[in-house]
């Protein structure tokens, strides 16, 4: 990143931090209206998502060979997500679903999310152990 671009990004971050602080102060002045912070959070979430996708696409366009690994990892993440969804089950009865005010698909999505988190956790722990052991064996 060039120095000029770095300065622009730095000032943009200062501006966003100042606006966030202003909205928090406004919230504490008038706590009966939490909508301003919610709308700011939605705007920041959308802005960060757009920036992340934009920077990723820009990086892939700038270095297509380097993005090959990232696309493989993304495909692996999609496969883990699909497998997690396929293995997720709804173990709740219709009465329980109504009691907790959730649909059968909602229960399946939560189960898939938990299963995916467990799988990713196991993969990261395995990579950490493998990395440590390979360094230990090389020495």
Which features does this protein show?
mainly alpha, single chain, 139 residues
Structure description:
The chain is mainly alpha-helical and 139 residues long. The protein has two domains: 1-62; 66-139. It contains five helices and no strands. The protein has helices spanning 3-29, 35-62, 67-87, 94-100, 104-138. Helix 3 crosses helix 5 (104-138). The radius of gyration is 22 Å and the shape is flat. The two termini are 37 Å apart. The mean pLDDT is 88.
The radius of gyration over CA amounts to 22 Å
| Proportion of helical residues | over 70%
| Global outline | flat
In whole angstroms, how far apart are the ends? Answer: 37 Å
SSE topology sketch:
Blueprint: H1 3-29, H2 35-62, H3 67-87, H4 94-100, H5 104-138
Helix pairs in contact: 3-5
Entry summary:
With 139 residues, this protein is mainly alpha-helical. It is built from 5 helices and no strands. The chain has 2 domains: 62 residues; 74 residues.
